[in-house]
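Retry 2 of 3 after timeout on previous attempt. Resubmitting structure tokens to design endpoint.
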């Protein structure tokens, strides 16, 4: 069921800590009538406004973005969870860059990305360097 409202949002990384809380806020907002989520695996939070797309992030396509006004990218991992620096960079840089490019093609009004305090391309910390790279991109 789609509830009438002005805006629709896409949340990528909706099953993580920030994404989960964001989805709840969007669902409880009168501004949003539809909250679309692209996830690797289904979450446990449900609401009539939610539409869930389970996708392989290596294969996200233009039609996965759909007709939304706002895209919130909450993708995040750690090198420890990812296993390697390359795998970390794929999640925190490559995927957001691809999603942003698809959103731009779709003429999405707003693209909001969660990065990190201290994000800086010149940082000695690989984590903050990658976060700075995606901010610059």
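Retry 2 succeeded. Sequence:
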């Amino acid at each position: 069921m789609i509830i009438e409202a002005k805006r629709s949002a896409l949340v990528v990384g909706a099953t993580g800590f920030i994404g989960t809380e964001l989805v709840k806020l969007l669902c409880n907002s009168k501004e949003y009538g539809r909250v679309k989520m692209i996830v690797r695996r289904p979450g446990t939070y449900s609401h009539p406004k939610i539409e869930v797309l389970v996708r392989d992030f290596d294969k996200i396509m233009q039609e996965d973005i759909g007709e939304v006004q706002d895209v919130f990218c909450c993708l995040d991992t750690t090198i420890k969870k990812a296993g390697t620096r390359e795998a970390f960079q794929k999640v925190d840089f490559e995927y957001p860059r691809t999603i942003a490019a698809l959103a731009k093609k779709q003429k999405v009004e707003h693209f909001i990305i969660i990065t990190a305090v201290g994000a800086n391309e010149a940082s000695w910390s690989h984590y903050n360097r990658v976060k700075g790279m995606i901010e610059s991109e």
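Attempt log closed. The chain has five helices and five strands.
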